[in-house]
Amino acid sequence: MKANLNHIDRRRFLRGSGIALALPLFGSLATSKACANGATDNPKRLGCFYFPDGVPMPLPEDPAYQEWAWFPHGNGSEFEFTKCMEPLEQLKSDLTVLSGFSHINARDVHGHNNADQFLTGAATGGGDREYSNSISLDQEYAKHVGDQTRFASLVMSTDGGTGTARGTHTISFDRNGRPIPAEHRPKQIFDQLFVKSDGDSSRRLAMSRSALDDMLSDARSLRKTLSASDRKNLDEYLDSVRQAEVKVEKAKRWLDAPLPQLDGDPLNLELTTDEPREYLRTMFDLIYLAFKTDSTRVATYQIGRENGVGRSDHLARAVGFNLAHQLSHETKNPGGWKNFGVYCQFLNEEYGRLIAKLKATPEPAGTGSMLDNSLLLFGSASSAFHLSRNYPLILAGGKHMGFKHGQYLNHAGMNFQGGPWLGKREPWQDEAKGEDMPLSNLYVTMLQRLGVTTNAFADSTGIVANV
């Protein structure tokens, strides 16, 4: 039996003058075969997010430890967030915080060299070691689900492109270990995901009105064929796209800003303090919309480049500071841990907004919420100052895949390294106080729950059974 291509296309796109806008799936427009079988299978999505420079790690005897240490206090289901994590308090039951995990091949390497390894676990190394990489977690999953959506994966970063070896601007690597260029321009991401156009029509629309305005008559026609629930979903979706479109326009000023000078001179951005927050929020919103329209089921976003190079270092201006990387160097100063913690609090707040939006959105043409069917990993490849051990990690969503949350898997216990850098040896140069678990074990577990038949990834030695 041949599929009705017009019906499928109509379900997926609204059309205007030479352009088309991707739509979410609607249960009331599911094919008769799907209806006969009950509900269609829920999609399984993967989102991976990376932030640089580690996190606040004051020692227990430091007065700042109780309030500004990044990791929670406690273990299992009995744990308390510090002020760094306060924005995630209402989402406690939807996430798991992990400590005591790192990649075996990275533990004795300077922390700024390890963003390349975060999703690969490869021995990219440092110093004079020859550089090579391997496939990243997201691309391993994309091999299995990429043909089911318009885009196999969405690769994003704040700085864009690929960067350099051990100074990456992307956390996605193909099966040959080659970096996949990341897109950093919200307008290009928006158009790529949601708008198919010919050159003349897009130029006309750019000069006249919003892309959505030209599609409203088509939307009104489509609404007549939908159930009451799907009509509500359509209206909410169009409103979300409209809001994203407005944010993209606002974010253009950020994209036109020059890259910072490598000599450390301050960057003169014509931006208000709130615009970096708007940029980060827009990038998260674009991932939300990409998932909601089933344009892709795999997304990565590198929030910042390591070592304070690139425009991403200026995201700290959202909370009143100049350079994000500098905050990790100034923790020995009065109020230094708090300043670093406030920046991490900002990142957690925006990540939490994405989790909350997915949780509040019913699965289009499926069951549960979008968060139940989306597995999100948020973390960094260093914890204390340049320390490539005990990665700070937050795993969220995926309850329909068997993940149980509301816990802190404190494998590090009190055997962690930290404290401010006083200008001498750095924590990564010291002998480890404890034995980390292979982070690749978590990746094997994630892949298995996502439906991939595998027992190994990178340097894994098993799985993590208690997530």
UniProtKB/TrEMBL annotation:
InterPro entries: DUF1552, TAT_signal. Keywords: Signal. Residues 1-36 form the signal peptide. Residues 160-179 are annotated as: Disordered. Transmembrane segments: none annotated. Pfam families: HXXSHH. This is DUF1552 domain-containing protein. It comes from Allorhodopirellula heiligendammensis.
